[in-house]
Structure formats: C-alpha cells, structure tokens
Amino acid sequence: MTTRKLAVISAGVRVPSSTRLLADRLTEATVAALRERGVDADVEVVELREHAHEVLDAVLTGFPAPGLRAAVEAVTGADGVIAVTPIFSGSYNGLFKTFFDGLDDGVLAGKPTLIGATGGTGRHSLALEHAVRPLFTYLRSIVVPTAVYAAPEDWAGGADGVAPLDQRIARAAGELAELVAARPAPEVVDPFADPVVSFAELLGGR
C-alpha cells in the first residue's frame, strides 16, 4: 500500500470539544475510505487550542515559534487536509482564521481539503458555504463538494429533512479520499544514487 499524509486541524476551544469529535469522525472515515483505495494514511492532528498564543505571535512576528512550526509543517507537507472549526457569531472562530492567515502564500494551493464545522444550532450550517469555503477557495485549496456541519440535534440522531451525520461524513470522506489517492506519490530521492566522483576528477575540476 502507498502512504499519504493527512493533516487534521481542530479549532475547538473547549475540553471536551464537539469540534474535535467531528474532526476525529471525519478522520476515521477518510482513513477507511483511503484504505478501500489501497492507500494507507499517516495522520497528524493539530489542536489549535494548544497553540493559541503561538498562533497570534506568528502573525505579529511573521515567524512560527518552535511549538507551532511542527503544526505548520504538518499542514504544508500533507497530501490532504481536514479543517474543522466551531461557528461563532455566524462564521469561523478567530483562532481558526488566524492560523491560516499565518501560513505562507500558496502552501495550500491545489491541496485537497475537507471542511467541517460545529455549532449550537442548525441555523449556522450555511456558515460553511458563506465563510469557510470561500476562505479555502481564496487559498486555492481544492475543497471537496460535501461540507459537514454538526449541530446538537445531529449528535442526538438528526433532524427531519437533513441527511444523518454518518451519511454526510462518509460522503465527504469518500470525496477527500478520492482526491488524495489520485495525487502522485512523492518522489523518493536516494542520496547514494549519484555516481561516485574520483579524487582525481575532483582535483581536475579545480
């Protein structure tokens, strides 16, 4: 099996967090969908809550602190991204936006991305389409068609007229897995593959 890297960004601010729960559900479904396609997944989860001060410092200074650098590298080096935010006042929260504001321009270009959100009411579900999706479109990510929003009633079994949460998660995960599996495998460079240059040739090139 080939291996692809997944970066999972959770911007929940409480513990326990429904945002992290949704991120975990989306990750599990994506890993399973990749496995069905003959692809193994190397998953790295970034809890932005743990880096809140460093996220702000990175925007102010232009440089991520050591603790945040690994999180940034996880995102920039991933073959696919799962990004989940709580919805505050009808949009993504400030921690989520500030983290992505601090990334270098172009690092998410062409990267398959699944977006999700949680909120206290189903009335905020369109925030994924009017706020979160435009953010990643601006960053030139390839955002999968299905975005997943989870309100309290979704965890409790769903609401009339809304597809069950499990079905939406499975559909979105399949869309992301399809894009990630189609990405070319990273080229492996053998550091010992270059021809050996003799000492005489080195002297002759002075």
TrEMBL record:
<keyword id="KW-0285">Flavoprotein</keyword>
<dbReference type="InterPro" id="IPR051814">
    <property type="entry name" value="NAD(P)H-dep_FMN_reductase"/>
</dbReference>
<dbReference type="InterPro" id="IPR023932">
    <property type="entry name" value="CE1759_FMN_reduct"/>
</dbReference>
<feature type="domain" description="NADPH-dependent FMN reductase-like">
    <location>
        <begin position="5"/>
        <end position="155"/>
    </location>
</feature>
<dbReference type="Pfam" id="PF03358">
    <property type="entry name" value="FMN_red"/>
</dbReference>
<keyword id="KW-0288">FMN</keyword>
<dbReference type="InterPro" id="IPR029039">
    <property type="entry name" value="Flavoprotein-like_sf"/>
</dbReference>
<dbReference type="InterPro" id="IPR005025">
    <property type="entry name" value="FMN_Rdtase-like_dom"/>
</dbReference>
<keyword id="KW-0560">Oxidoreductase</keyword>
<protein>
    <submittedName>
        <fullName>FMN reductase</fullName>
    </submittedName>
</protein>
